[in-house]
Structures
1.
Amino acid sequence: MAKPNRKHRAAKQRAQQSDAEFWASVGVPEDRQPTVAEFGNALMTAAMQSAQSGAQSKTARGDVAVAKRFGTLFAGDGSLRPEVEHGTQLAGQRVLARVFENGWLPADVAQSAQRRLDPFAIGFITDAVAAYIRPFAPVTVDETWLTQLRELNAEVWWTDASPHLSQWAAKHMLTPAEALTAVIEALALLMLLPKMELIRPLPGTARPTADIPHHVDEKVLGRVRGLLAKAESTSFPEEAEALSAKAQELMTKYALDRVLVDADTAVPDLPGARRIWLDTPYTDAKALLIDVVANANRSRAIFFAEWGFVTIVGDEGDLDAVELLSTSLLVQATRAMIASGNAATDAARRRVFRKAFLVAYATRIGERLAAATAATIAESVAPERLLPVLASHQLVVDTAFDALFPQARNRGIAIRSAEGWDAGRAAADRARLDSRRPLDR
């Protein structure tokens, strides 16, 4: 017993020495408590160490063991001291401000957190976002921001009687050490988020007098949503085909009419950008499906494999259509993939089959959309007028895309199942997605 006890005491002593060295490294002498600013810096330093330790893992996130160690250290005697609470708020807002300046939107932050953090750390980030937006007048906040904040339920629920951290910890029944561990994990993930393109104005910089981008008419969207919802829910392939085709015909007609109207206006509808997050597995195959839908809607798409999202560039009305229709297609493709089955019982072979199925499905959908585009333009009232307008519009989108992503490059997807490929193309043929929005390639 004596030897293990000596080892335990030695390990504890080394940890104490390490803790003292940590406080010294952030400028806090051993004989006093840190100030609010000093604790905020200490918390950010701890989060950075957690981020650096976990950055090389298969899915980038903070190192939980490092977070627990510092959570216990910062909790001290088990009470949340004022400098800890205010320092936590200060650190959270500093890190989050940098994330937003680096191009991340509230929904993007939430999506990355949901894939890598536990519910407590996710909740802390949601509250931090609500606190971040609080000082800004609503008229100076971009509509995309406001919409995403509502969808995330990011609102200030705590009172000003005491700092957020203690109220949040009490709400979730967390000890101080557990609460601070969750905070460190949250901040570590935020520090790992890479710099991206700024696709929407930051809070405080939106111009309320600026022209509002043209979105698809809500009545049209409502009818399309209803048709696609029925297509997704029916168990009869023929009915799904008819409903999907009707939805696409409606969007195509609306798109052609709007393009010609916009061509006559003094101020054209300028390109915007939007991100669509994908669920695992087979994110590369799913991204390909979004890409062909984007192409069919005169938009451009780029896939960020490490984080699992696609950024789409196009005018706002087309982005509405891409998001709505690609989301429905992903549901239908996944259902068709599962229904197709696979004779192989080996999990690895099933995975190869399913990936090949989705890639083939997306490829065939793209071919059919291209054919439908040509047919739709040819059948329009004034194709000779429409073609140059579409070409000019596509040039504007391409220019905006190249400015945002000058280093973009094409990347192939390996297919290792002929059976899956054939099944995917057959399913895409059954989808009858042959009436689509125009595109000039």
Note: DSSP finds 16 helices and three strands in the chain.
2.
Amino acid sequence: MAQGFDPAAATAAYLAQLPPEAHAKATAYTQGGHWLLLWGALIAVAAALIVLRSGVLVRLRAAIESRKARPWLAAVLVLGLDAVLETLLGLPWNIYTDWWREKFYGLTSRSLGGFLGEFAITGTISVVVTVGLLCLLYALIRRTPRTWWLWGGGVVAVFFVVMLVLAPVFVEPLLNTYKPAPSGPVRDAIVQMAEANGVPHDKIYVYDGSKQSNRYTANVSGLFGTARIALSDVMFAKGADLSEIKAVVGHEMGHYVEGHALRMAAKFGLLALAGFFLVDRLFAPVARLLGARGVQGLADPAGFPVVGIILAVLGLLATPIYMTIVRQGEVAADRYSLVHVNEPDGLAKALVKTIEYRAATPSKLEETLFYDHPAVGNRVRMAMDWKAAQMKVDAVR
């Protein structure tokens, strides 16, 4: 304890800034979200099963083959049809989870029409990107049927990196308007921080995130020359002061400087490799179990719903691994902000404002299984411990 400063008491004081009913609402929202993981996987399985049992993909593939078209054309058309059908079948679920539920908890102000308009854009992009990736994987299956899964992990990692590079240029501007941080004390502080940490200061933006969400948030996106840090206008609408902004930008700079995107690409590539290995081994028995009539094996794109079902189940089981990978990066980014910006109270104030969509004090097991960010209570305590350590250092000086 430095000069009478108690990190535990300081953490409790920050969390107490929200009344008990606000914490209860956040807990209900967060824990309800855990169940969405299970129900989402079941919806994905159901949608894939409907498409599979309809036989429409087998009929389309047979029609294409009767015209002696090249295998890649069959893959594009069959996988494209599957992606469109499963996207449409999942639309009611997306409306519930991404619009109605967010509206119910006060986390979005957009209309259903606005949501559907953006869903049309993101859904179209998702279909194109998904079909492109899957066509590459099916080409691998045809050419290297025994080792495709090994190469597939690398393809996913590379594809992840390519999408990171392209997203800020071609995708994000379709949904939001990004403007450089305006002149004034905030921009001056950000520029100074950027120069001190080797981050291009012309890559820090404010965007109209309030179009989609009322969440207090910021993000880093892109890679190499397209990387940028973006602050939602919600931060300013909710009264973020300079210390908060510096702490949050420092966190996002941590992601940028420490190359977390590339690390995640490598780790997700390894997860994909493991998943593809299991798909290779499980496809035949699962196809028989599901009654996949007319599917001619793993290399047949008409059998992709079987692959999708396997991956949906594996993805659900791998949730703790995925969450841990992302959470570790968030811990490192918090640490970077504390070390290089030294705004522990600013970070704590910013974190408290995120409690409305992420309960502050889950059990350790719940955090491990379901949280892609560390619990706010733990993050605030980390900031207060840092503050205490710095006070001790200053006292020695």
Note: Residues 219 and 333 are 12 Å apart (CA to CA).
